[in-house]
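Practice problem 4.
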């Protein structure tokens, strides 16, 4: 996975010379740019999993507006839709705080990272229909929690693979889904981060009927 984008960057950059026409240069530049971004994303995943495994990752809890964070996530994912050419997929957001204070004391950047990872996966594996995300109040063992979710109408995940996808370097089908790319690190990172934040993450899905990912974040009792 690291070699593929790196080979593209080196290969297409070597094709650009004084004899190249502008149309070819622009086309090669587009491939180099996309490959460079893919390579950066892979390296960032490797850094994250390394920091998590060694216990060196930082969790910084500060109060923030959940709605503002979700609005920012929506803006980023709408741009991702444009990049992927999937503007026809309906992107929906739903929020119901219930009795929970909409100001959450947690690590905003890590929650955002998990949401963006799940949403990018949802777009990647969805060819038509919709992708919806948001959060709502949840009570687990009499403890108030915020339950975030990302649901799509994509290819789905078979029941016997739903635990496997959270393991390091594992994908649902390590042959067929190669067309979608990725290292198999994204969901592992999500699981580790949510656990560090005191929550849980899980998936509910059927083949051909999409997937729904959920994760919980504890809420301070004084703030609920």
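Answer key:
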């Amino acid at each position: 996975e690291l070699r593929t984008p790196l080979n593209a960057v080196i290969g297409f950059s070597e094709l650009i010379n004084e004899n190249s026409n502008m149309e070819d240069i622009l086309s090669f530049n587009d491939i180099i740019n996309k490959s460079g971004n893919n390579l950066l994303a892979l390296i960032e995943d490797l850094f994250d999993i390394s920091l998590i495994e060694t216990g060196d990752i930082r969790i910084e809890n500060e109060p923030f507006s959940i709605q503002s964070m979700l609005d920012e996530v929506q803006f980023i994912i709408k741009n991702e839709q444009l990049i992927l050419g999937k503007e026809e997929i309906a992107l929906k957001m739903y929020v119901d705080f219930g009795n929970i204070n909409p100001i959450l004391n947690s690590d905003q950047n890590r929650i955002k990272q998990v949401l963006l990872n799940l949403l990018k996966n949802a777009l990647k594996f969805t060819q038509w229909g919709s992708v919806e995300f948001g959060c709502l109040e949840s009570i687990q063992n009499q403890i108030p929690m915020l339950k975030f979710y990302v649901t799509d109408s994509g290819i789905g995940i078979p029941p016997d693979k739903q635990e496997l996808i959270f393991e390091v370097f594992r994908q649902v089908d390590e042959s067929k889904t190669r067309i979608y790319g990725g290292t198999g690190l994204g969901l592992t990172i999500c699981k580790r981060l949510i656990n560090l934040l005191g929550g849980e993450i899980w998936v509910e899905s059927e083949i051909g009927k999409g997937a729904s990912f959920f994760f919980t974040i504890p809420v301070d009792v004084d703030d609920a």
